[in-house]
Amino acid sequence: MKLLMVKGKIFLALIACLSFSACIKDKVTRTYTIQTPVFASKAAVLAGISAAPAREIKETGKIFWLGSWIFMSDPARGIHIINNSNPAAPKPEAFIALPGNIDIAVKGNTLYADLFTDLLVLDISNPLNPVLKKTIKDVFPERAWVNGFYLDSTKVIVDWIKKDTTVDIEDGSRPMPGFGCINCSFAELNSGAGKSSEGKGGSMARLSILNDNLFVVNTGKLLSYSLSNYQDPAFQGELILGWGIETLYPFKDKLFIGSSNGMYITDIQNPASPQLLGSFTHATACDPVVADDKYAYVTLRTGNFCAGNSNQLDILDVSNLMQPKLIKTYPLSNPHGLALKDPFIYICDGKSGLKVYNVSNKQAIQLKQQLDVDDAFDIIIRENLALVVGKKGLYQYKIQADGKLDFLSRYGF
Fold first, then answer.
1. pLDDT at residue 207 greater than cutoff 70
2. Per residue in 269-309, pLDDT tens?
3. Is 314 helix (H, G, I), strand (E, B) or coil?
4. What DSSP designation does 383 have?
5. Which residue blocks in 131-207 are alpha helix, DSSP H?
6. Domain map (residue ranges) of the chain
7. How far, in Å, are 96, 265, 314, 324 from residue 280 at the CA level?
8. pLDDT at 171 over 60
9. Whole-number pLDDT of residue 286
10. Least C-beta-crowded within 10 Å: which of 267, 318, 386, 399?
11. The pLDDT of residue 169
12. 3-state secondary structure (DSSP) of residue 7
């Protein structure tokens, strides 16, 4: 009897220990690369904006194509200016150091670029001597926070210091907040994306120029600025859209806006007063969009900032702009930017590369080509040329009559 009582007590003690983590703790060590910010005075950074001869690309970012020039953000570091007079042999010309930059647009000799929360206007008549003409404050208020660090109106982050740190933790637990960025790239640290004379951005853009108007999206609004004076944009109106706004794509007098939970269609016939026409809601996922008169093509993807579980292409009927309707969904790997050249669509599908589909039959699109572009991110098409940005640089292709791409060049690393 006593033996049974002793065994019973031991059994109860074991149950108690299993119920409370304090009884048994498996200690393990983990090593993380911690990145802490280096702050600088915003006034000093703005006063010191300058350009240098072309330098090596550290990380590829968003792109803008104007005439024979390509502008590409090196996320959080600055902007590469590339002479593309010969697409088979692009020539880097200059680099504008601009901490916190992600988005760009160009009209004439004027460059529009973000610097964390602010939108800058630069005269680049001489790319090697950019001149700051105007600073529009708080256009991107969400970017006052960068990986848990707050930027007040007087400072910006100009660099990150990396340090390997080993910590003792309980098995299965996560590091406590406040360590700084862990194993992050510059793009992750700073994210929250016509006529040849007008220039063209990719489908991941958050800045777009139509005629003499600049349209900008932040996480909650569409903002409109008049460019009657290119170097002095004047605010003229806004449209509150909600939350999670990510990209905008212009088509004629419409803007198709991608958000983390859907697509919005806005009328900009009166640029000073954008009007919401219709919307389409989908599961939470990152969401760029391209469109034509009848259809919109939306890519959904999972990712660090998207919190979704969808990787797919949605094709929508937008013949009735006020009531977009889903036609068909196609699975993809991890799609990002895309471009349309009817009847073909070109999709940057992350590690699966660049994919070319014939979309003549919306119910049964056909894969025509798949190219090995490492971490394909975004694409711009102009006439019979395609400019693709991937992890290892900028790729250029000639578009054939059958929609397939012939390689011309790669500039990068």
1. yes
2. 999 999 999 999 876 777 799 999 999 999 999 875 665 67
3. strand
4. T
5. 186-189
6. 27-192
7. 39, 9, 11, 6
8. no
9. 74
10. 267
11. 59
12. helix
Query: What pLDDT sits at residue 148?
Result: 85
Cα first-last separation, the chain:
78
pLDDT at res. 17: 44
The whole-angstrom distance between residue 41's C-alpha and the CA centroid of its chain comes to 26
CA distance 133 to 214: 16
Instruction: Compute the Cα dihedral for 371, 374, 375, 379 and give only its sign.
Output: negative
How far out from the chain centre does Cα 185 lie?
A: 13
Residue pair 288/203 in contact (Cβ under 8 Å)? The answer is yes
Q: Which string of b and e fits 129-159 if b means at least 16 CB within 10 Å? A: ebeebeebeebbeebeebbeeebeeebbbbe
Q: Is 31 exposed, middle or buried (0-12, 13-18, 19+ CB in 10 A)?
A: exposed
∠ CA(222), CA(305), CA(75), 5° rounding? 75
How far apart CA 367 and CA 352 sit, in angstroms, is 13
How large is the average pLDDT for residues 123-136?
93
Can you tell me the distance from the alpha carbon of 143 to that of 302, in angstroms, rounded to the nearest whole number?
Answer: 21
Is residue 412 helix, strand or coil? strand
Average pLDDT over residues 112-128: 94
pLDDT averaged over every residue in the chain = 86
For the full predicted model, state whether its pTM sits above 0.90.
no
Q: Where are the alpha helices (DSSP H) in 174-218?
A: 186-189
